[in-house]
Amino acid sequence: MERGEGAARKAGEPILEIRDLVKHYPLTQGIVFRKQIGAVKAVDGVSFDLHKGETLGIVGESGCGKSTVAKMLVGLEQPTSGQILYQGEDITRLSGRALKAVRRNIQMVFQDPYTSLNPRMTVGDIVGEPYEIHPEVAPKGERRKKVQDLLDVVGLNPEYINRYPHQFSGGQRQRIGIARGLALRPEIIVADEPVSALDVSVQAQVVNLLEQLQDEFDLSYVFIAHDLSVVRHISDRVAVMYLGRLAEIGTDAQIYEHPTHPYTQALLSAVPVPDPEARDRRGRILLAGDVPSPADPPSGCRFRTRCWKAQALCAEVVPPLEVPERFRDSEGPERHDSACHFAAERDAVGSEQDERGGCPA
Amino acid sequence: MPESYVPKEAITHGDGGTAALAIGEAESLERPPGAGPPSAPPTGKPRGLWSDAWHDLRRNPVFVISGLVIIFLAIIAIWPQLIATGNPYRADLAKAQAGAEPGHPFGFDTQGRDVYTRVVYGARASITVGTCATAGAALLGSLLGALAGFYGGWGDNLLSRTADIFFGIPVILGGLVFLSVITSSTVWPVVGFIVLLGWPQVARIARGSVVTAKQNDYVQAARALGAGNRRMLLRHIAPNAIAPVIVVATIALGTYIALEATLSYLGAGLKPPTVSWGIDISAASTYIRNAPHMLLWPAGALSITVLAFIMLGDAVRDALDPKLR
Amino acid sequence: MTQNDHQPRTDEAAPPTAGRPGLLDVRDLRVEFRTRDGIAQAVNGVDLAVTAGQTLAVLGESGSGKSVTAQAVMGILDSPPGFVTGGEILFQGRDLLKLGKEERRKVRGAKMAMIFQDALSSLNPVLSVGAQLGEMYTVHEGLSRKAARGKAVELMQRVGIPAAEARVSDYPHQFSGGMRQRIMIAMALALEPDLIIADEPTTALDVTVQAQVMDLLAELQREFTMGLILITHDLGVVADVADTIAVMYAGRIVETSPVHQLYKAPAHPYTRGLLDSIPRVDLKGQQLYAIKGLPPNLTAIPPGCPFNPRCPLARDICRTDLPPLYEVAPGRASACHFWKETLDGAR
């Protein structure tokens, strides 16, 4: 599959290639004799690449499947079908020792710093646990020192090694979670809403820490969040998900300045801008209705039920995620993958001259 | 009401030097951990669930009193000679059903045996049955419940249905049928029977609490690190799921003692020559009009024992139940 | 300890809208929580004023006291552990704190209503939404059940629930998050209150739905000329709808200002820090500005200005003297000794 030029610009080899990833949760009926009566199509054919050293942001609303993608990447969920190629090898087919070795390289940072740390373990045990699971990484005698180094790296006092999680605030706990994620020196970190549970004034600290660690350890991030401005700040490329599929993917400037998918446009226009002056100037697209159930998604384009551009074609043909035909000859930033039959730039969303951008809700 | 967490936040952050851990990027690294800022609250060290619970329990008079009673009972169950120098089997028919007299504060039973000595010696049977049955039911129940809750699937279904069957057995009727075919004068058949009927209750609690603990992010985090099932179960789930099991077991202990007495009273539980409150109550019940002391003393001892364990269980539950905090 | 109650307060500290006849006037409100770890001073002398038709946003982080203030005003504070220890809550001229329980209850619901963050847990799961909406009328206005049901349908239509007629018998879990929040709004509106307090009404919702709900709320507020207090931590939402902002920190108001001026030039370093820590396109690739440290422990608020340990401008006086609310401009106040420097852009 062809990617936008932007991706190639930033970094080298793809370190992770996701191909047609699908996760369906069966819906069953009956207690003794279970009968499958359907499936929740949480993720339904998602493909993207993650390059070395880059940050790929995944945005979307609740229920769009972004967290399920994260879980599949770190092996918490088994995909129904599709491939996750890590350095060319499909890790969904691995098991046992080989899988364990690969897992070392893909680590996760969780959303809720209050539930993601075992309250019965000390910080030292929590951050050191990866070494117990993968003893080959660090000999026993060095572990304590390594844990202290990690705490230092994430900005916590290494002397706090014997304290328990509840003695820390949310932001500090998230640092502990990040230290645990770093322990095995992974190449990839999947961060699922890492700052959304934190207080506003602490979020910036953690975002800065993540960026600083990326430079220091040459990490690649998959950064999942619903906060579009944080994602834009940290990401090199951004993927927009809707109801189990990718709607659009491109560099941050391509997605935020030149979105061509109607869903992305609506999503961006709905983000409250912290500037009261912009109140009346914004051409906000108010979407009608709610996200349909992933157990019974619309045919064709998933977004068509809420889309103001929808036509008969949208119900019949699934729009492929590729550079739309009308932009193929273009050199500008509008040339990026967008899964819409009628992909078009909205007249400069959110910019000064936006007076006529408002669309019928 | 979502926002009531604001004060709770203050509580969580309040317990102990959260402020002492203030990061401020570089500055915290310079600050020695001992040197708490002036803002450290006076209440001192932060605590975990167990030490928190212990802190609560020590100040709870119900816990202290029932705890002391239980310790006393345990001591006389092991060394009844400490407070009763007589022989529980020594009968003096001349004194049959006689009331209290010096040296025999509780009087004598129908066969002229000293009621005080028998009440003291009876503690052993009750405590033995209670503790052994509880230990057995708790071990079996929590093991099966934890495995079912952790692995789920058909094993879980099988366990749940089996437990339902056991719940359906009427305890007394089951005891009469099951124990009447066994002719052993030891406590073990009774213990076995109570374990058999008691484990499903523990299993159900253990299963539920494992299922809850399993969904915690930190278990997912361990899994993402590549941890095996053993590690997840022993290190992450069990320590966080055990509290409800302890509570239910403590309360069950009291009811098991009462159950033993009931079965013994009906003639299906312990059998003479074992000394047991239930047997003595049974023997005395026909003479309640003429010689109530024969019944009241063992019955009183039984009630106090059962009450002590149930109160202890209640106090432990209050201390361990995070919802009440 | 300068968090003492009797700090001299300058007269200019009067709330910005004090000139107009107030709908709600909160004066020197104090709330504490008595916990096992000591007394948490959640609200420490808060002044707020809202007039009819006005939107006041109370902005703050968790632990700032914003929600506790709202609960105290509504009279739904969990007590114990929470206790109102001082101040007045004047609502349409009457001090609510002096009313009896029954009178207070009548005010609640009929005259002032609240919208919570989590609509699912605020609605009764075993009653249909029609029954819950209708209850407002049968209880407060004595309508018959049939008439109440008709009113319920009307309300549901008013808040934009499609096919209201058909869905009036549905249960809360059958609605999506956005629709549930609309039902909450409908319930709050039912008796046409004069004041609505919305506590993080859109935090649990997705952005596209959030926009719909905020628009609805603003529209209804205009239509009924209600006072609206919007409790939130989201600077974006505030910028969109508020007329006035009160920024809270450690149980105090640190800045209050008309919305445009606050965003243009904050007069308190905390407000400035919050605004600066929002990611901005032109600063991509740079470190975000981050307020150092953590919000204070409410059982041990630092002496002097509560923000001083985290403040880049803090000097000796900040560590000893609690700053009063200085009048910065007409209708603007800042509780910072160095508000002038802050206003001029000092960091």
From TrEMBL, chain A:
CDD domains: ABC_NikE_OppD_transporters. Pfam families: ABC_tran (PF00005), oligo_HPY (PF08352). InterPro entries: AAA+_ATPase, ABC_transp_ATP-bind, ABC_transporter-like_ATP-bd, ABC_transporter-like_CS, Oligopep_ABC_C, P-loop_NTPase. GO terms for molecular function: ATP binding; ATP hydrolysis activity. Signal peptide: none annotated. SUPFAM superfamilies: P-loop containing nucleoside triphosphate hydrolases (SSF52540). Residues 16-268 form the ABC transporter domain. It comes from the Bacteria. GO terms for biological process: peptide transport; transmembrane transport. Residues 326-361 are annotated as: Disordered. Keywords: ATP-binding, Nucleotide-binding, Transport. Belongs to the ABC transporter superfamily. This is Dipeptide ABC transporter ATP-binding protein. It comes from Streptomyces piniterrae.
From TrEMBL, chain B:
It is found in: Cell membrane. The keyword Plastid does not apply. SUPFAM superfamilies: MetI-like. Residues 123-313 form the ABC transmembrane type-1 domain. Residues 34-44 have a biased composition (Pro residues). The chain crosses the membrane at residues 62-80, 127-151, 171-199, 237-259, 295-316. Pfam families: BPD_transp_1, OppC_N. It comes from the Bacteria. The keyword Cell membrane applies. Keywords: Cell membrane, Membrane, Transmembrane, Transmembrane helix, Transport. It is a multi-pass membrane protein. Its main location: membrane. One of its GO terms (cellular component) is plasma membrane. Residues 28-47 are annotated as: Disordered. GO terms for biological process: transmembrane transport. PANTHER family: ABC TRANSPORTER PERMEASE PROTEIN, OLIGOPEPTIDE TRANSPORT SYSTEM PERMEASE PROTEIN APPC. Belongs to the binding-protein-dependent transport system permease family. This is ABC transporter permease. It comes from Streptomyces piniterrae.
UniProtKB/TrEMBL annotation, chain C:
Residues 1-22 are annotated as: Disordered. Pfam families: ABC_tran, oligo_HPY. The keyword Repeat does not apply. It comes from the Bacteria. Residues 1-12 have a biased composition (Basic and acidic residues). GO terms for cellular component: plasma membrane. Keywords: ATP-binding, Cell membrane, Membrane, Nucleotide-binding, Transport. One of its GO terms (molecular function) is ATP binding. It is a peripheral membrane protein. It is found in: Cell membrane. InterPro entries: AAA+_ATPase, ABC_Ni/Peptide_Import, ABC_transporter-like_ATP-bd, ABC_transporter-like_CS, Oligopep_ABC_C, P-loop_NTPase. GO terms for biological process: peptide transport. Residues 26-275 form the ABC transporter domain. PANTHER family: DIPEPTIDE TRANSPORT ATP-BINDING PROTEIN DPPD, OLIGOPEPTIDE TRANSPORT ATP-BINDING PROTEIN APPD. Belongs to the ABC transporter superfamily. This is ABC transporter ATP-binding protein. It comes from Streptomyces piniterrae.
